[in-house]
Amino acid sequence: MALSPEQLKNLMSSLPVTQRASMAGVKPTNAEERRMLQHIESQSLARPIPSLGGRPTLARPIARQSTPPTPAPRLLAIANGNAEQELAPIPTESMDSNELDEAYRELEEATPIEEPVIGSLRPTWIHFDEAPKSVEESGLSADGFQFDESQMHALKRLLSGKHVCLIGAAGTGKTTMVRHAMGLLIYKGDPEQGMKPLGIRRLSGEQGPSIAICAFTGIATQVIRATLPQWLQPACKTIHTLLEYKPASVVGSNDDGKRAMFVPTRTALNKLDHDVIVIDESSMLGLDLWHNLVDALRPGTIVILIGDLNQLKPVADATFFAYALSAAVDDQEGWTLAALTTIHRQKEAAANKIIEAAHNILKGETPVFDNPQTDPNWRVIGFELPPQADKAHAAIVSAVEYLRRAPTPEMDPNNLGQYIMDSERHIFEPYSDLLLTAGNGYDFNDSKSFVQQVPLNATLSRIIEKPSEEHPVYIIDAGRDSKKFAVGHRVMATKNESPVIKDRVTNGLIGRIIGIQPNMNWKGNRSLFGTEKEVNDYRTQMAKSMMDNKNGAQSAMGVNLEAFSLAMQDTSQFEAREKQEEERQASHIVSVRFANGADRTYRSAIDVGDLQLAYAITTHKAQGSQADTVIVVVHHAVRQQLSREWFYTAVTRARRRVVVLYTRMGLSIAVTRQQIHGATMAAKVARYREVMTNGNVFVRLRAREQITERVPTIRGVVESNAEGDYDNAE
Length: 730
Prior knowledge:
Layout: H1 5-12, H2 17-23, H3 31-44, E1 75-76, E2 85-86, H4 97-110, E3 126-127, H5 135-138, H6 149-160, E4 163-167, H7 174-188, E5 200-201, E6 211-215, H8 218-227, E7 236-238, H9 239-242, E8 245-249, E9 261-264, E10 276-279, H10 287-295, E11 302-307, H11 320-329, E12 335-339, H12 349-362, E13 380-384, H13 389-403, E14 407-411, E15 419-426, E16 434-437, H14 453-464, E17 474-478, E18 481-485, E19 490-493, E20 510-518, H15 532-548, H16 553-556, H17 561-568, H18 571-582, E21 585-594, E22 599-604, H19 605-609, E23 611-613, E24 617-618, H20 619-622, E25 627-634, H21 644-651, E26 654-662, H22 664-672, H23 681-694, E27 709-712, E28 717-720
Parallel strand pairs: 3-5, 4-11, 4-12, 6-7, 6-10, 10-11, 13-26, 16-24, 16-25, 25-26
Antiparallel strand pairs: 1-2, 8-9, 14-15, 17-18, 19-20, 19-23, 20-21, 21-22, 27-28
């Protein structure tokens, strides 16, 4: 049987755009043209494809519809310069089954060998250039891994659930489970539950792949990216980047020290088109950010939250993860629970000992410390600190000095059970490992500050990166504060850059200073800001002048008290001074190279002020990151910040070794005090449910089918429908 031109045209309409282009002799010659064809295909997935009498159409992409189907006829758009033409539905009533079979064969013969319709090298639901053709080649398969009963149950929930909470403590296999589930969702689906593969496609604009894997912080995002195959790494981003935060109103530029406010551009009026959104480290996800995200979600989007309820909650906001768990336990609001309960032995013995210590903490028990004298390959050790904070400060610095010079014991490959010292790798590397404290310690007059990050950084920066003539310490005017930086110092960014910036620098990202030079645009007394030696010499000279000058300190320092008193009465000068503060330049230009490879040069006072030394950091800042060796300071001088969740989070940052520097009282507080009350997950969830039911906390658990209004009230926020039902407002 020969097909008529009309029949052939109608059958062609059932093929993906890329195949139709190939059959027309149009082959993309570069990645940009391939992306264009894939974008055309992704935009047409929601449109109806002509039916072939109930028979599945050839090579039809299987994808979750992001918008409701429209009855309009599908347009054929082949990138060959021809005008688009409208295709009518195929007249299936004029063809019997034999004619359809023959039509299929003719279409196969008409298709070029390099892109066959049947037996394609790439599944037809894969519309992402970088994606491999099969799950076996994707790097997402868990072949050879033996899933236990809880993991099999969790896997089914991940594949079939609309909104899923995947929970599990350290060592239960959350990362392995999610990778395997992602492979099945993209390539295979779940035939037992009648679920077809979702596939993956490139979305329009800045959205990237149709599957997004997110975290709250840039550090956590980097850790996740390292666990993914390279082709899927573009899907990994922070939640702020996913929502495409952009300046709402520009109040200045980085050069003059002003800062812009960023708001999400993905909202209820400009929704995301993703099929699946996975959020790791979900215990860090606050309610405000979740509400921004849920506003931008389409009702059909799958949401998977991965988290550990035993970790620290957000600093300034309640964690949404607990409220999602509360709904998931009872399968409410579309949420379902996938719980991993079995602790699996890790490939490295180090991980097993660290996980054992972490679970002892969860049970309210002190970790069992190894003896480095009898076990050269120790993994968890402890050293007791003096109870006085100032003496503990000196002991912490001494411990860091010893560990950063001590070689790492490694197993001798030639003598089983024997160890050799690796002089190339020290136990503690200050530029890659972590020293974690419980607080900031900004007040140097408070004795408890000595065991916190700011005083420890001030001391460690001088010991680890000793000042020299080549790299002196600079005293830098950074607005309200002054900074003491030198080339080589380890620093941390404390603010997020705009999501549109390439190699974005985010809050918590670590870097090293690679250059410091005077800022010629700074207007100030250069005698007070420069190298530490120059400034100290000037101050010594001024102090000597004050003692020798018979007119006293006022004349020596050039201060006119009468003029100062008159200026105090003119409030307009204060406004001008505040404006000048916003536009103020730093006395020196500081260049930093960050861990993600980004180089930044900071000139304004506000930008330089946002950098902080990072030899010691708080556990909150380290959440989501990992290091080979982690030193944890557990001192009762900061007892208000110590808790079981804090200690557990700190210990689980380590991959190979944990060193606990403690006082007995501090260790006792850290393993007994709980931020989230309850011995079991069910008890903790019950506590959050009580707060959620009886408190004044507004939580929206899922995307709404219709746009709702958020109505501010005295005690919180309530939702109403479009008609304005405010009966529940208080």
